[in-house]
């Protein structure tokens, strides 16, 4: 059974994402948060994706405040809480496997991650070759543009995705207004 714990130790454990929840007895939730945090850390460091750091900070704050909110609950509410994982694979994968759209999205994600893994070393090799055959300034210029290319591509993908979502919502709203007009007649 989950029992309330010492306030000072709750504070100390809450500084590590997931550990505070685990200290309070919510092992599944704590493990979910801890795995997500360390998975993000590994992804950020190996792929050099510093743009994902805000997500890591948000996750850390979520865990910190979640722990303190749970610890401050009245006893009857605290003891009524159930321990559960943050993500349920049976909800993400209702059939037990990826459907066609999920497979395509997952495939694109893996492809992009693979490209990101080889991108920086490839640019370093290219600029080294350019320094030998062309001027060092030109090699630096090409290298700087190519280093920033993934960021530019991601920005374009995000903008196109945003535009598609806005258009889809507009179409849905237009359809609703047409249906409402038909019903009123």
Q: State the separation between the terminal residues, measured CA to CA.
A: 61 Å
Tally of DSSP β-strands:
0
Q: Structural class per helix/strand content?
A: mainly alpha
Gross morphology: flat
* Percent of residues in beta strands: under 5%
Overall average residue pLDDT: 84
Q: Which spans of ≥5 residues are poorly predicted at pLDDT below 50?
A: none
Query: What is the H/E string?
Result: HHHHHHHH
Number of helices: 8
Describe the main β-sheet briefly: none
Walkthrough of the structure:
The protein has 185 residues and is mostly helical. The protein has helices at 7-14, 19-24, 27-47, 53-71, 75-80, 89-92, 100-133, 136-184. The longest helix has 49 residues, at 136-184. The chain is flat and about 75 Å long.
What's the structural blueprint in terms of helices and strands?
Layout: H1 7-14, H2 19-24, H3 27-47, H4 53-71, H5 75-80, H6 89-92, H7 100-133, H8 136-184
Helix pairs in contact: 1-4, 3-4, 7-8
Brief descriptors of the model:
185 residues; 79% helix; mainly alpha
Structure summary:
The protein has 185 residues and is mostly helical. The chain has eight helices and no strands.
């Amino acid at each position: 059974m989950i029992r309330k714990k010492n306030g000072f130790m709750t504070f100390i454990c809450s500084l590590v994402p997931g550990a505070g929840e685990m200290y309070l007895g919510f092992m599944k939730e704590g493990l979910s948060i801890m795995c997500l945090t360390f998975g993000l850390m590994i992804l950020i460091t190996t792929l050099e994706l510093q743009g994902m750091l805000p997500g890591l900070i948000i996750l850390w704050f979520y865990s910190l405040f979640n722990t303190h909110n749970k610890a401050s609950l009245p006893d009857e509410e605290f003891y009524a809480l159930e321990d559960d994982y943050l993500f349920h694979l049976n909800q993400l994968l209702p059939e037990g496997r990826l459907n066609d759209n999920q497979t395509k999205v997952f495939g694109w994600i893996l492809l992009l991650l693979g490209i990101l893994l080889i991108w920086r070393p490839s640019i370093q090799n290219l600029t080294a070759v350019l320094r030998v055959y062309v001027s060092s300034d030109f090699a630096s210029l090409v290298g700087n543009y190519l280093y920033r290319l993934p960021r530019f591509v991601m920005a374009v993908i995000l903008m196109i995705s945003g535009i598609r979502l806005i258009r889809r919502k507009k179409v849905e709203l237009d359809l609703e207004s047409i249906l409402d007009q038909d019903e009123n007649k």
